[in-house]
Amino acid sequence: MGSLFKSEQGKQEILQLYDQKLESLSIDFSSKRVNTSFGKTNIIITGNPQKPPIILIHGSNGNAPIALETYKDLLDSFSVYAVDLLAQPNKSAETRLSMQDDSYGEWMHEIMDKLKLQNVILAGFSFGGLVILKTLLYNEQKIKEVFLTAPAFVVNGNPIKALFRFFIPMKRYMKTKKKKYLDQFLAAAFTEKDDYAEKSLALIFTHFIMDFTPVPVIKTTDASKIKTPITLIAAENDILFPGGKMIRRAKKIFPSLKSTVLLEDSKHVQNKIDNKKIVEIIKSNAQL
Predict the structure, then answer these.
(1) Widest CA span of the chain, in angstroms?
(2) Interior angle at CA 97, CA 129 and CA 235, nearest 5
(3) 153: left (phi > 0), else alpha (psi -120 to 50), else beta?
(4) Which of 176, 205, 210, 255 is deepest in the core (most CB within 10 A)?
């Protein structure tokens, strides 16, 4: 399989921005690359090693530094492991896993085994939510509790809205490199302007081969098997995974649903105020 990066120069530009984001966080950290049967996985380790472990999982077109920025206020309360997802524009292997089988769950358990982690809390955003739910379906044994923010794999939004608000502007930017199309995409996805996202996505849309496979939704029969406590945080104005629709279905299908929160006026990607709310929800509700 060829690289998902279209050129070595493009890859280096994306990874340089990755390093800049990580440095801007001004945190003490170490990086660890673990071998899994699906490829090498890059993990950033930070927080308080004397505290319970939490694994952070970012969304599509993201990376571990973005997750750390989102959940930065957790660093005093947890031993934090931020994972670079496979086949994303980051420092992990470019192995693209199937969303239809147990691969993501198996991969995450291999990571926990290599890190020798037990009683883990998982917290993830968007596609990271799919990874977490796949992990629970594969084996719940090592996981104490999960926190899902605007997760994929629970519901999907109106495909026509997603086409016109997300995918057409994205494709037009890829073809023309006109900033107005990138701005249209960002306005649909982000609750507030994000300079890093603008720079990062401009590079990713230009230099990275993205996966446009439709995101599945979890089967009711599978959801009913999950016993791990779930806290679901949904975004009211999320076009991809609408918050109200998500909470209604989650209440029907997840017997282990502990609580739900609807972030009013939030689009798919939350603003800094809502990120602080999410952190407080985790700190006040996690079973430590």
Answers:
(1) 50
(2) 20
(3) left
(4) 205
- pLDDT per position as a tens digit, 51-89: 999 999 999 999 999 999 999 999 999 999 999 999 999
Coil vs helix vs strand at 100: coil
Q: Please tell me the distance from the alpha carbon of residue 60 to that of residue 66, in angstroms, as a whole number.
A: 11
Q: 211, 264, 261: which is closest to 104 by C-alpha?
A: 211
Dihedral of the alpha carbons of 91, 95, 100, 104, in degrees to the nearest 10: -50
Please write the tens of the pLDDT for every residue from 237-259. Answer: 999 999 999 999 999 999 999 99
What is the rounded CA–CA span in Å between residue 166 and residue 35? 35
Q: How many whole angstroms from its chain centre is CA 260? A: 18
First to last CA, the chain: 43
pTM attached to this predicted model: 0.97
CB atoms within 10 A of CB 142: 16
CA angle 227, 232, 116 (to 5 degrees): 55
Give dist(CA 42, CA 95) in Å, integer: 13
DSSP per-residue codes, 218-281: --HHHHTT--S-EEEEEETT-SSS-HHHHHHHHHHH-TTEEEEEEETT--SB--HHHHHHHHHH
Residue 28 DSSP SS3: coil
Report how far residue 115's alpha carbon sits from residue 188's, in angstroms, rounded to the nearest whole number.
37
